From TrEMBL:
Pathway: Carbohydrate biosynthesis; Calvin cycle. It comes from the Bacteria. Its cofactor is Mg(2+). The keyword Hydrolase applies. InterPro entries: FBPase_C_dom (IPR044015), FBPase_class-1 (IPR000146), FBPase_N (IPR033391), FBPtase (IPR028343), Fructose_bisphosphatase_AS (IPR020548). Residues 5-184 form the Fructose-1-6-bisphosphatase class I N-terminal domain. Keywords: Carbohydrate metabolism, Cytoplasm, Hydrolase, Magnesium, Metal-binding. This is Fructose-1,6-bisphosphatase class 1. Its EC number is 3.1.3.11. It is found in: Cytoplasm. The lineage of its organism: Bacteria, Pseudomonadati, Pseudomonadota, Gammaproteobacteria, Alteromonadales. Substrate binds at D106, G107, S108, S109, N198, K264.
Length: 325
């Protein structure tokens, strides 16, 4: 089976990017090990602190953030990082060629129940003009990403990666510590009968999503003419992995509760990297009003509504938005 290095070379990734990705993944392997120790290593439970988004930080949020921050800072390849668990941009090496944004631990509410969690990341070039502590260089649309991916800490530890030449899935071989290419160039089925949304928020959804989900629930009696199944992992990384593997549509739509917060998921380190992986696998990634990867961020923790998945299903969902434009 092919190793990560050879696939990255085949996809034409420059040496320094390959070295950066390997460094980042060394950090993820350490997180994978800590996560697998669970209660034995005393890593479960919450801290007394909150992150910049007002969420109580789990111990594993803080530990994973520290591991990735230390690893990337020491590497020399990175000019600055932005993270869900850091209020501001963290300056690294002023000579570094890349910027990295990450969600160190996605699905933190799953840590207590030994369920799916992961790490999500995106990488862009660092402009030469930028100072290492200047957040403005992070405010680029997702179309500027040079690589993105996630590591899923599930029954096996898996990596999904793209450098813009397809989306590949790798499995961590824990006997020698390498990621092996197990699912090259995956393609998301264009049609699906599966959707993922947190239905407890239904009363807060906008009209297009109300109507769209209503029609999915109507099954063969409704205009979509088929019976749908629903899944919700409560970790985007788990839901998106399922959609990449067997199709589906994942939604965290706009929420009327707070019009100044246009959705729950964060653009730089959740929506954009997943959008890049989804598009490279033949799927779509939209906010309801445009392509996620074309959204121009105005701050590093910006949130966006997200609709991702099987091409024909996302297009069907978007037709409900078009009706209400
Ligand atoms: P995080 O644990 O990094 O804060 O992200 C959690 C996100 C995402 O992974 C998931 O899809 C969503 O929150 C779950 O939201 P609900 O609590 O509404 O289920
Ligand atoms: Mn969080
Ligand atoms: Mn997350
Ligand atoms: Mn997180």
């Amino acid at each position: 089976m092919k190793r990560l290095n050879s696939q990255l070379q085949k996809d034409g990734a420059p040496l320094e990017l390959i070295l950066l990705i390997r460094t980042l993944l060394a950090g993820c392997k350490e997180i994978s090990f800590r996560v697998s120790q669970g209660a034995l290593a005393g890593v479960l439970g919450s801290t007394l602190s909150e992150n910049v988004q007002g969420e109580t930080q789990k111990k594993l949020d803080v530990i994973s953030n520290q591991i990735l921050k230390d690893t990337l800072r020491e590497s020399g390849y990175v000019k600055a990082i932005s993270s869900e668990e850091e209020d501001d941009v963290v300056p690294c090496n002023p000579e570094g060629k890349y910027l990295v944004s990450f969600d160190p631990l996605d699905g933190s509410s799953n840590t207590e129940i030994n369920s799916l969690i992961g790490t999500i990341f995106s990488i862009t070039h660092a402009p030469q003009w930028m100072d290492a502590d200047d957040p403005s260089a992070f405010l680029q649309p997702g179309t500027q990403m040079v690589a993105a991916g996630y590591v899923l800490y599930g029954p096996s530890t898996m990596l999904a990666m793209t450098t813009g030449r397809g989306t590949h899935l790798y499995t961590l071989d824990k006997t020698h510590g390498g990621f092996l290419l197990t699912h090259p160039n995956i393609q998301v089925p264009e049609q699906t009968k599966e959707f993922a949304i947190n239905a407890s928020n239904q009363r807060h959804w906008e009209t297009p999503i109300q109507e769209y989900i209503g029609d999915l629930l109507a099954g063969t009696e409704g205009p979509r003419g088929k019976n749908y199944n629903m899944r919700w992992v409560a970790a985007m990384v788990g839901d998106i992995h399922r959609v990449l593997c067997r199709g589906g549509i994942f939604m965290y739509p706009f929420d009327k509760r707070n019009p100044s917060i246009p959705g729950k998921l964060r653009l730089l380190y959740e929506a954009n990297p997943m959008a890049f992986l989804m598009e490279q696998a033949g799927g779509l990634a939209n906010t309801g009003h445009g392509r996620i990867m074309e959204v121009m961020p105005s701050e590093i923790h910006q949130r966006v509504p997200t609709l991702l998945g099987s091409k024909e299903e996302v297009e069907a969902c978007l037709s409900y938005y078009a009706k209400h434009e």
